[in-house]
């Protein structure tokens, strides 16, 4: 496992308290078949990490709520398992996408649904994991990978800003379907000091 992944697994399993996040200098989103025994010992190629993308220098604090976009779309469609607006008071939204690479309009529709419910005026911040662009069967060229990530970032910002001009949005974070991974303590406290470009999680 990557050293950063081990660090956050150790924190969530054996430590308590608030920890400041640090962005990994490199990452990978390549996957190999677990049916091949060499997968466990063969390092995957890494590429430089561009760091976090920030929008609006405001601070936020709240309990983490969210998950994988594809799963949340199903939850919103069903409607039966969603929290109430009152239950979301004082929360912070986190999102990430899988190797299926949902189109940008899927994120726009999901966030529009949140906005029309008034939730984007409830959330204290929006944290977004780095999108995985690698896929077993449908690979993208390096240029197309860059374009996909850029379109997703711009779509998230554009949709959220139609409903809330102030909450901080932090994207390209090390959680979700890429490696190394931060372990997000869903339901626990997070703080975003956008004025200092710092993020803290409580374990």
From TrEMBL:
Gene3D superfamilies named among the record's database cross-references: LD-carboxypeptidase A C-terminal domain-like
One Pfam family hit: Peptidase_S66C
Domain annotation LD-carboxypeptidase C-terminal: ranges: 62-192
Coiled-coil intervals: none
InterPro entries per UniProt: Carboxypeptidase_A_C_sf, Peptidase_S66C, S66_fam
Domain of life: Bacteria
Name the record gives this protein: LD-carboxypeptidase C-terminal domain-containing protein
């Amino acid at each position: 496992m990557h050293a950063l992944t081990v660090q956050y697994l150790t924190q969530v399993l054996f430590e308590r308290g608030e920890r400041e996040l640090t962005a990994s200098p490199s990452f990978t989103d390549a996957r190999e078949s677990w049916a091949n025994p060499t997968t466990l010992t063969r390092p995957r190629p890494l590429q430089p990490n561009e760091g976090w993308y920030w929008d609006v220098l405001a601070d936020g604090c709240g309990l983490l709520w969210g998950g994988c976009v594809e799963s949340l779309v199903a939850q919103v469609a069903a409607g039966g398992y969603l929290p109430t607006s009152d239950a979301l008071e004082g929360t912070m939204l986190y999102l990430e996408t899988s190797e299926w690479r949902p189109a940008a309009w899927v994120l726009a529709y999901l966030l529009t649904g949140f906005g029309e419910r008034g939730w984007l005026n409830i959330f204290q911040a929006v944290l977004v994991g780095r999108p995985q662009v690698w896929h077993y069967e449908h690979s993208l060229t390096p240029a197309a990978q860059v374009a996909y990530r850029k379109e997703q970032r711009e779509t998230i910002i554009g949709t959220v800003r139609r409903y809330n001009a102030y909450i901080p949005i932090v994207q390209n974070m090390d959680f979700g379907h890429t490696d190394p991974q931060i372990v997000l303590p869903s339901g626990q406290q997070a703080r975003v000091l956008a004025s200092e470009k710092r993020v803290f999680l409580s374990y």
